[in-house]
Specification:
alpha+beta; single chain; about 25% strand; about 500 residues; 14 helices; seven-stranded antiparallel beta sheet; about 35% helix
Length: about 500
């Protein structure tokens, strides 16, 4: 059993937790998990009902002055009361200590295992090859105490493993351990003569930083703001004119809710950053309570880049992703809706190679998909599709590269969907009555469940049949050669190791 955490300097080092031993969490874990709230609640109840508590414990009877402390002095029970108070404090301290002693974790045999509980023991295990991301969260109180919680996002419903809490330096080191092991880097086995590896976390490349002006502007230039303005300047005057001024009061809750949602969106995007590293991207956000999530390569199953009409003058785009085990999970956090909530086109192009490495050399094709309306490398919809999409049919099309499928569309609301071929699970071909009449069909690629759907509409019927076969064959070939999920397994310089100086106290 180890009570130690890694020593860290200016750069985060790894491998302190790769000894196969059980390690304990931060000593303040019981308090941060809810102990402070419980103590505050008990203190409030004791202050509110102190007379009844004293009467129940010491049988003081009626208190002439209403002060139970004076009654204790008159009855000579001050010493007994002090012992009772000391006993309560000792029970709380022992309970918190036992809770900390029984909360532990380890990394061994390709798994991360966490267990906790005094009477009822709970154990959760995550396979490293199924880890979809690693999140470090720092609520305000935890930041004040120098602690952080780390959560392993694992493929599967409610399969995440949370470690609450570690010191912030230890959490960063543990995340580096998990990412490097998940990437395919080897570590000397326990008991071998090799020195413990120490792999340094290289500085990242800044890809996106959302400032206050962009965060506020994106909310102001949104559909919800347009609806709010219509309610204020059209809906309320109409109600006042045709009913009574009191009817306008019924809209007040809607206005308050809209303003609250807008404020939350602005706050969520302030201090939002994305940094590119050799282990994927790291997404940071938050003002008082902060979070930092690492998204490794090969864990992204689909990407959707979209641009609402009102964002077009500012040149802003939104990037969303599908990842295994996120939508059905407990948190369903904001990263699943948009990994880059407000990004310029150059920032989008810089981000994509970190999410789908095969697109590194295809930026011209990405540009065609984002803003182009001519065919280019895209296979366009046939002219007869204008009967179904009179304005958007010219932009509708697809492109099949060596590593991904790209689908573009939208006239007012532009969008581009990218699906790595190695992540395609199945392909379907559909054709309704209108499609049979016009000779067009729909091809849909299926990945993990999520908000993004790889649906290609208005494809020429004969081309759709060929595409159906091409996607099935290309997906099989891509899966055979895919190494994105083990992105460091075949590096010639991996691992970069040095003798570990050994652990130091947390």
């Amino acid at each position: 059993m180890s009570d130690t955490a890694p020593a860290t300097g200016g750069r985060v080092t790894a491998s302190s937790y790769l000894d196969g031993e059980w390690h304990r969490l931060h000593p303040a874990t019981p308090l941060l998990r809810g102990g402070i709230l419980i103590l505050a609640l008990l203190t409030y109840l004791a202050a509110r009902e102190r007379d009844q508590v004293f009467n129940l414990v010491f049988h003081l009877g009626d208190q002439d002055d209403g002060d139970p402390v004076s009654a204790l002095q008159r009855h000579g029970l001050v010493g007994a009361a002090s012992l009772v108070l000391l006993g309560v404090v000792l029970i709380a301290v022992v309970g918190f200590w036992l809770s900390w002693r029984t909360s532990e974790f380890r990394i061994a045999d390709g798994h991360v295992t966490a267990r906790h509980g005094i009477l009822l023991r709970t154990t959760r295990t995550a396979r490293l090859d199924r880890v979809q991301g690693v999140t470090i969260g720092r609520p305000l109180l935890a930041r004040l105490l120098g602690a952080a919680r780390i959560e392993l996002d694992v493929a599967g419903q409610n399969a995440n493993v949370r470690l609450e809490y570690l010191s912030y330096a230890a959490a960063e080191s543990l995340r580096l351990d998990v990412l490097h092991l998940a990437s395919g880097l080897r570590h000397p086995t326990v008991g071998s003569d090799e020195p413990a590896a120490r792999i340094e976390d290289e500085p990242g490349v800044g890809l996106l930083a959302i400032g206050p002006a962009r965060a506020i502007g994106a909310v102001l230039l949104s559909e919800s703001t347009v609806v709010l303005l219509l309610v204020l300047f059209v809906g309320i005057p109409v109600l006042v004119a045709f009913t009574s001024p009191a009817a306008a009061v019924s809209i007040l809750p809607v206005l308050i809710g809209s303003v609250t949602v807008a404020a939350r969106r602005i706050g969520r995007n302030l201090r939002y950053t994305i940094v590119g590293t050799t282990d994927g991207v790291r997404v940071g956000a938050g003002l008082l309570s902060t979070s930092n999530e690492a998204v490794p390569p090969g864990r992204v199953h689909a990407i959707r880049i979209e641009q609402p009409l009102l964002w077009r003058p500012a040149g802003w785009w939104r990037v969303a992703v599908n990842r295994a085990g996120r939508i059905q999970g407990r948190r369903n956090n904001d990263l699943e809706r948009a990994i880059a909530p407000i990004a310029k086109r150059a920032e989008v192009q810089a981000l994509l190679p970190y999410l789908i490495p095969d697109l590194t050399e295809r930026m011209e094709l990405i540009e065609q998909g984002l803003t182009g309306s001519k065919a280019g490398e895209f296979v366009p919809a046939p002219g007869r599709a204008a009967w179904l999409r009179p304005f958007a049919w010219r932009r509708t099309g697809f492109a099949l590269t060596g590593g991904a499928l790209l689908m573009r569309g939208g006239w007012l609301h532009r969008h581009l969907t990218l699906v790595p071929q190695a992540r395609v699970q199945s392909v379907s071909l559909q054709q309704g009555p209108a499609g049979r009449l016009l000779g067009v069909a729909t091809v849909e690629v299926h990945t993990v469940h999520g908000q993004i759907h790889g649906r290609m509409e208005l494809v020429d019927a004969e081309r759709a049949v060929r595409l159906f076969r091409e996607l099935a064959e290309a997906g099989q070939r891509a899966r055979e050669v895919d190494r994105a999920h083990r992105w460091n397994a075949h590096r010639s310089d991996a691992p970069r190791v040095a003798a570990s100086p050994g652990p130091a106290p947390a």
